[in-house]
Design a protein that fits this description.
The structure is a homotetramer of 120-residue chains. Chain A has seven helices and no strands. Chain A is mainly alpha-helical and 120 residues long. Chain A has two domains: 1-85, Helix Hairpins; 86-120, no CATH class. In chain A, α1 packs across α4 and α2 (28-46) packs antiparallel against α4 (59-82). The first copy, chain A, is globular. Chains B and C meet through α2 and α7 of B and α2 and α7 of C.
Chain lengths: 120, 120, 120, 120
């Protein structure tokens, strides 16, 4: 069920680590730290912007943000490889769960409701 | 160049948000926050484990970790949609950059070197 | 009940922001982002280290880590000022809650128990 | 130079960990993870709010936010104890550095300038 293009990326990333003898550092614990660090580097771009400014990025900022997102995806794929997790499959299953958890008629609209459900 | 399976997921996630009138909350600034929060929920599973324990997860913990990773991927796809970024393409480009930035003969082996290069 | 030394720091940090006309950026939302970014910069130092290496820091690394912690404290104080929160008082109250939540006879010892209680 | 009130808190937190035999889990690496997790729990409160909403918190939300900040401070103090760092002293030193790094006449005002200096 896994996607060929994603499997190919995972394999390339594994080889990249292996040839550098870096797999020894890629425990799930360490990879979760690296992933979180990359997520914060993304966050850093937006910390002092208004929401509107975060929509209207300059081309330079847009490219920098895109590369931070690539870094996050790289560690997400490395971790899914190390833990033998099918990311696409799990994402589809999580979306089905979310469909049931947040029924349209119940949550539609206000940010107040959105927040409450989000924290549930 | 973008992957059909990923494009399909992005579209489903967009519809999920639209039908709930939640797109109003999905500014890049807010999505970067949500993504970072999910990355920390992943981190939380591993915070008191040894590295070895993070490899040898119980089935229950493994499933919980897999769903946290799905949550991260969901917000990564939502953000790539809102900012019109081709995640697969950017990841390939970032991997090419990393190949040049970390030449095998220069970085192979010790964690000390790995750390130094990592921070560069 | 608040500590004079901490109140003095808070005041200095407020003046630092005011004289630069930066208070406009210091909404609680933005400050929580900045605080999280600083926490990840701390995390980054340790991401590829073993636990033992994180104990035995070089003097240079130790100093860098100490300054990251100062950055976290700075944003914690800024936020406590903006939200009018007495950090010392809340910390004492949280410690009393923790005393009751984690009774010694119930949680002492194994990491397994520690993890379970931590997630409760 | 360290503050008696802060030293007292650090000592109480150390005793809390020792009597539960939890110091074995409190390596700097693990504590940096716990601190980052708490910072994200703070972030989570604000992720879907506007900046203005983050100023106008309900009393319930305000209290919850205050306790998250206490959790962050607790791990910051635990880490400063484990690494033998004087948090107040380092914060004063960092503030002096910031005074020089961001001269008023150079950075006053616009968010654009603020962002640029922030990333330097």
């Amino acid at each position: 069920m896994s996607e060929p293009a994603i499997e190919e990326l995972k394999l390339k990333l594994k080889e990249f680590a292996q040839v550098r003898d870096w797999e020894q550092f890629h425990s799930p614990k360490n990879l979760s730290m690296a992933l979180s660090v990359e997520a914060s580097e993304l966050l850093e771009h937006f910390q002092w912007m208004t929401e509107q400014q975060s929509v209207d990025l300059t081309p330079q900022r847009h490219a920098a943000v895109a590369f931070e997102m690539a870094d996050i995806f790289i560690f997400l794929l490395r971790l899914s490889d190390q833990l033998n997790i099918d990311l696409m499959e799990m994402t589809k299953r999580k979306m089905e769960i979310n469909e049931k958890r947040y029924p349209v008629e119940k949550v539609k609209g206000s940010s107040k409701k959105y927040n409450e459900y989000d924290e549930a």
